[in-house]
């Protein structure tokens, strides 16, 4: 479905600087939170001034076009001109063109933001064709105490551990046969959120446990991702590629050894090389200079080590962050290489719809600047409370089914512990 055909409302947007905002999470809706946060900074959204929905092969292109039009029609007062001030939409896109889950851009009625010691509130009002607000103004969200603690278990869903080992084995034979170099295979865990459960508790756990990750909540997709798909800020572009993983060691020495063994593992370095190449290849046509480090570094997370590479460049063609997610998705870190074959193998070996898992999640501003992460370490919560969490691992020629299964277990940890 394309949004471009329908009449878009004119948005009136006003950003005001405020003195201080302590915590973002207590301001959120307990069942429908809208959040983008890292290191305690970011944006909380309330209400929906506009919801745009996209699906299919053209979901990114349609979103780019529609967002340009929304931004063109908007009347924006933004004295701050900082990332996240003025008009913004939070977004989450489905991984696959054939996903049954909708991709969406949500413009909140109120955005409360904090960044580098600057605090702001943005009010966004949608007007009818005759210039009348479509809804009465939303009251300013106030911090509310979190609801009671709750615990729930996430258990294997459609892919049981044995099924996962079997599909890794199948993928390894396909790779050995020369069909492809790498494929990322995921499995799912499922659970149910009790009606009274306050999702702000889960978000607090994620944000406190993984402060260096992007903690997000967009349209029921919540998680903490370490992987920046792309960030566009006033003509500069950056990305963080992750691929290659090892568990943290039990003590300092074992942990150091784990990091060294990851940094020198030819299997992980191979896996990583494919991921970096796919990002460079996608960004190069849109950038003047694009720099990546020659050797990946080891990124320490509370649950594991990743091989990481940062890419930085200067935009050459005025692309927006939405244009770039369209160009980048899916990277080899979440699909494989070559992309088309990897996607076909995923379709064949994964029995479920990934939904927004491994798709882009983030925000875009009126000028197209924005920040997008790869939706990892996350779960989708349906309206009825059903929870589905996903985690995957890059399979290459040397992959061992049991080790890949353990890797997915480690990757589930943030979301399993935040609910458990
Ligand atoms: C697929 C996931 O993670 C991706 C795969 C990685 C790997 O295979 O080493 C590492 C980081 C992510 O790019 C996931 O977390 O589900």
TrEMBL record:
The keyword Isomerase applies. It catalyses: chorismate = isochorismate. It comes from the Bacteria. InterPro entries: ADC_synthase, Chorismate_C, IsoChor_synthase. Keywords: Isomerase. It holds the Pfam family Chorismate_bind. Its EC number is 5.4.4.2. Residues 162-411 form the Chorismate-utilising enzyme C-terminal domain. The keyword Isomerase applies. NCBIfam families: isochor_syn. Belongs to the isochorismate synthase family. This is isochorismate synthase. It comes from Agreia bicolorata.
